[in-house]
TrEMBL record:
PANTHER family, per database record: TRANSCRIPTIONAL REGULATOR, ARSR FAMILY (PTHR33154), TRANSCRIPTIONAL REPRESSOR SDPR (PTHR33154:SF33)
Organism taxonomic ancestry: Bacteria, Bacillati, Chloroflexota, Dehalococcoidia, Dehalococcoidales
Protein name (record): Transcription regulator, ArsR family
Record keywords, A-Z: DNA-binding, Transcription, Transcription regulation
A Pfam family it matches: HTH_20
A molecular function GO annotation: DNA-binding transcription factor activity
Organism of derivation: Dehalococcoides mccartyi (strain ATCC BAA-2266 / KCTC 15142 / 195) (Dehalococcoides ethenogenes (strain 195))
Top-rank taxon: Bacteria
């Protein structure tokens, strides 16, 4: 998995965009109304999310619609579960001798 995914997820605005897309694809205009950011700033966020593979873009007429790429999100979740899975002893429960 590319570090670009983690860079994309590190920004709260990009995480908010992903939350907005969780139920349905939205147009760039619909998303932009949820933020107090310049359109050029939002375009940069969309670009990074697309490069990371977290969202897809589809042009319909004069509008661009964005949707989640769930396969990449599943990979991220699986990686996080693997990193944090409990297969080590809990050091808090080990009594200190001495």
């Amino acid at each position: 998995m590319d570090n670009l995914v983690f860079k994309a997820l590190s920004d709260p605005n990009r995480r908010q965009i992903l939350k907005l897309l969780k139920d349905t694809p939205l147009s760039a205009g619909e998303i932009s109304r949820q933020f107090d950011l310049a359109l050029s700033t939002l375009s940069g966020h969309f670009k990074l999310l697309k490069e990371a593979g977290l969202i897809r873009e589809e042009k319909k007429g004069n509008h661009i619609f964005y949707s989640l790429n769930t396969s990449v999100l599943e990979e991220v979740l699986n990686l996080m579960m693997e990193i944090f899975k409990k297969d080590k002893p809990n050091l808090r429960n080990i009594k200190q001798e001495g």
